[in-house]
Amino acid sequence: MALPKYTERYLAGDSWLAGCSQHPALVREAWSLEALAPIRSGSAWLAAEAPLVASMQAHRLIREELRGPILADPDLDTAWWLVPLDAVEELADLRAVAVQPIGRPLHCPPTGWPACGRLWLTRPDGSGQLTAPAVLAAAFGPGGFRRPAEATA
Q1: What predicted TM-score, i.e. pTM, was given to this entire model?
Q2: What are the φ/ψ torsions at residue 84 (nearest 5 degrees)?
């Protein structure tokens, strides 16, 4: 029996996300209990923390194919963008964005449903795609992200 496309996407995203942990089985166990799983940054990505409203505005400005996973916690008014490991310098001058240090855990729900108030604005899809720091900086910077001229023609 074939799985629906959204189920396949969630399974791929969960597999990738759990694989970013040193203890994938514990991540899956937390999710089976409908709890958040602490996944430490630094093996595949860093978490760039920003206010939720500003993140939603930036999310709207960035084309889907350029966005990586974005985790949101409305109760904390916070979002975390998963960015490449070399993003620290490029995002250092953004006042609204703080790249969390390597090894800091990000408490994540599975990709298919929210848990403990957290949800994915953009879900991990299993590809490992992250938001490029230049794209994120442009979306949070003055004037926001602008598509290249050839993309709008």
Answers
A1: 0.89
A2: -60, 160
